[in-house]
Structure formats: structure tokens, C-alpha cells
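Batch job 17 of 40 flagged for manual review because the log was empty.
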Amino acid sequence: MNNYQIIIEYKGTNFFGWQHQQNKRTVQGEIQNAISKINKNKPIKIVGSGRTDTGVHANAQSANFEIEKLWDENKLRMAINGNLPNDVRILKCIKKSNNFHSRFSAKKRKYVYKCHSGKSVIFKDLYWEIPNKIKINILNDCSKFLKGRIDFTTFSKNNPEIRNRFCNIYSCKWIDNHPFYVFEIEADRFLHHLIRYLVGTMIKVSENIITLDYFVELLNNKNAYPKIFKAPPNGLYLEKITY
């Protein structure tokens, strides 16, 4: 069997997330169907570096799959794209060794979250539209506390099956490009909804709904019923996977 890595771009607006679901349109499902068509209609299972939720986008999602036929990388990319809809695209195909695994071989994952100060018919599916003035200095004051090895129990979706809630945050910052504001964060792993909880809560600090001290308290104390806020999915992008 031949193992191929694919780098994928998709607009998540009309998908029910990455993971294949019966009778629902997903990114994984569309790509598996496309590969099956060039594989004599034999089913193919692709493995992603991680899942993205409904409405979340990707600039460079990574996945891999095994296929019997040995393909030229560029021809394989074009063949898959020829069977994909226009909101998902394979950017690159790379022949890998058989021990490469998109999820378990990954060292770092980088996400960006995009906000737009105001209303826009063009950007409404691609940014979180925030009517209030965004105070970039306060947002970066918050982000200073997000570096290093952190237990994100308070900022993660409750799942009793996940016992380890520590993430190693390598870098994070807010970028001011008015009227656009972008949060960049890179870590070894992310918990479900973690970035959306962090962004939503930091924005509330910027809006003076909660204080910076309370945000830091949430990070340091594990609260079963925290007062946190979740940003919508449409501003979140999977930006890069590092191996």
C-alpha cells in the first residue's frame, strides 16, 4: 500500500465539520468519496490531523490515506480535485513512508481566529463580526497569560473521557489590522472548543464585561461552572500543521 499525505483547504460554512457523519455533508466524507471514484469505487479512509467543527475553515488541514496504486503526486492531486466540490480543495499531495500518520506524527498545530469590527455582507461567513470597538492592547494583555504548559480544564468542553487537559502553548498574539483583528495561537494540541472559549472570553475582557483579573483567575482555578464565553465558529481557521 502507498501512503499519501494531502494538504487541504476548505471553507467550512456549508459543512457539518470535518468528521464523516452519516447523511451529513462533511469534509472528510467529500474527500473520501472523491478518492473512491479514482480508486475503482473502492472505499478509502482518510485520517485527519484533527477535527474541525461545523462552520470552521482550514487553510492547510493535513490528512493521509493508503491506496494500492502508485500515483504521481501532482496527478493524484488533480484527480482528487476533479471530483471535489468548489468549497474544498487539495493543495498538495506528498508520498510518505508507511509509518506517517497525520494525527500522531504532528508536532505543532497553528490556528488563527479572525474578527471584524463592524458589519459586512462579504466577510460575515469568514469573520466574527463585533459591533463594539476592539481594544487590541487589552486582548494582548490577556494573551500574555496563555504561553507555556497550561491546564485548560476551565476553557474546554466537558468530556469525562479526556483526563489530560494540559496544552503546551508555543506562541500566541493578537494582530491589529483595523478593521480586522486576528488571534494567532500555536500549540502541541488543542481541546475541543478551547480556542473559541479563549477568544470569546478575551473579547468580553476587551468589552469590560469581565476583568483581566477574572480571566487570569479562570486560567488558574478549575471551576465546574465558569463564566466563560464562546466565539462563533466562522472566524476560526486551521492554519498549519508542523511535523
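Reviewer: the log was empty due to a logging misconfiguration, but the result itself is present. The chain has two domains: 2-96, 108-242. Unflagging and moving on to job 18.
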